[in-house]
Amino acid sequence: MGQPMSAAKKVLFSRIALIGIGLIGSSLARVVRRDGLAEHISVATRSKETLKKAKALKLADSYSLDPAEAVRDADLVMLATPLGAYGDVAKAMAPGLKPGAIVSDVGSCKESVFRDVGPHLPKGVHLVPGHPVAGTEHSGPEAGFAELFDGRWCVLTPAREADAEAVDKVAELWRRAGMMIERMDARHHDQVLALTSHLPHLIAYTIVGTATDLGDALKREVFKYSAGGFRDFTRIAASDPVMWRDIFLKNKDEVLDVLGRFTEDLTALQRAIRRGEGDKLEKHFTRTRAIRRGVIEAKQD
Amino acid sequence: MGQPMSAAKKVLFSRIALIGIGLIGSSLARVVRRDGLAEHISVATRSKETLKKAKALKLADSYSLDPAEAVRDADLVMLATPLGAYGDVAKAMAPGLKPGAIVSDVGSCKESVFRDVGPHLPKGVHLVPGHPVAGTEHSGPEAGFAELFDGRWCVLTPAREADAEAVDKVAELWRRAGMMIERMDARHHDQVLALTSHLPHLIAYTIVGTATDLGDALKREVFKYSAGGFRDFTRIAASDPVMWRDIFLKNKDEVLDVLGRFTEDLTALQRAIRRGEGDKLEKHFTRTRAIRRGVIEAKQD
Description:
The structure is a homodimer of 301-residue chains. Chain A has helices spanning 5-8, 23-35, 48-56, 67-71, 86-93, 111-116, 164-176, 186-212, 216-224, 230-236, 241-250, 252-275, 278-297; strands spanning 13-19, 38-44, 62-64, 76-79, 102-105, 126-128, 130-132, 153-156, 180-183. In chain A, the strands form two sheets. The first copy, chain A, has a six-stranded parallel beta sheet with strand order 3-2-1-4-5-6. In chain A, helix 8 packs across helix 10 (230-236) and helix 8 crosses helix 12. Chain A is globular, with a radius of gyration of 21 Å. Helices cover 51% and strands 13% of the residues of chain A. Chain A folds into two domains: 5-184, NAD(P)-binding Rossmann-like Domain (Rossmann fold, 3-Layer(aba) Sandwich); 189-297, 6-phosphogluconate dehydrogenase C-terminal fold (Orthogonal Bundle). The first copy, chain A, is α/β, with parallel strands linked by helices and 301 residues long. The interface between A and B is large, with 94 and 94 residues.
């Protein structure tokens, strides 16, 4: 945009601490490295094995198994563990946080961040929960890549009274990663994502599970003829089991609510099939086709 | 394989009649043209508009709105209309069929072909139902392309006593289109496809329908954040409404059966979420991950 290259490479944070270095954490580390967005990246993981992988991939400048050590002097702490670990991590890292530090995260539900992390943070530390809506079915530090976030949306859900400068800095980080930013109420985020992400995953996990209960011969056939629709579900149902376990537990109410609506709608279609009501089916399938156009127009195809 | 080019281009049929020229029919027409597999392609459609499109695309050598005219002198008649039209088409074309002609089809369920088409065929005409398991969410003659079938499976479900030569000729046609061939009992086909294709489509239609009932503001958000899983469902739910209406009506029993098993499994996961049973969820999600490997190993990814 007419700016010199050095402006695009401007350091945003002197020190970023990444707690967890799976698909999302390691992709962010790669962005920060590529664009020189921090002078120092520190990484903490719970497992020694993951830390070793991160080291081998040279994703950070310092490595630790202790969250409090990793966050020391960090301007930005980014939680990128499964949601179920947030409470313990927040408690463990709290003594190391410096005043004015920003704590953010990448989790797929946001109300639980206020519940699990908020109470542990010292006064003067800014909580800016976020959710980069991007991913693949692969997991672990070796699965990450800097382009993962390109052209996708990042939702930030800070409290209304949150520090504006802190929110701006987190927004700018994700913008540099190629994302478009939206600010939203945490509860509203959890409702929207329950439908667009959590329910699809639950359904895919279910239908693929239904297939795993088949005998071996039938199962081999299911693999062979998966091009008819099933294989798209298997990709979704290959996502990280622990991450998804935690999402369903943490966004329980919204997931159960949207699941209830889904079940009602499925029952109606089931009845139409049983009764041979072709008109009803065709009408439904014609409506859903229009939704696809909406997704394509929103450039999320 | 050491054969001269002319062998690969050998004519298989002197005259092929395609009844219906949507995604599958027009893709097959393109294969037949590309590889010179027939001396003459005739096409019949129910709608004038589709016939006009097929003409404009030069997909055939002759065009008709009358199935009996289109099938005259054909060695192979390929039904490629929605399943619900098979009965009427079979009745209408029967007077035009020559003795020894082969009647095949491309429909997604196969028991109904015996019910709907079989009784109308004159003695000496061979019925070889088939299902090329390939497709996209697009429909119509302009959506077809010759490579659609490459590397996918084609299931043939002729009766046990079917003419072996007729079965071989249909198999060879699909082989030339790049497909791998499997012979199967029609009922068994319908069971396997109910799970790998019909149920995934029903689910996708349902979940996308659940979203269409939302208010406009929320709907726009669903589009925006669809990258989290939902967009894969919208692609599936954009498939041809009439084709899918007919599949669910024609394969009703198998679809309802597999839907019953799916609903049981979904209810179990729902209960695990409600009760906060993380172990159960994680165990389930770990099992489904293994299925993805099965699909990749079957090269249907």
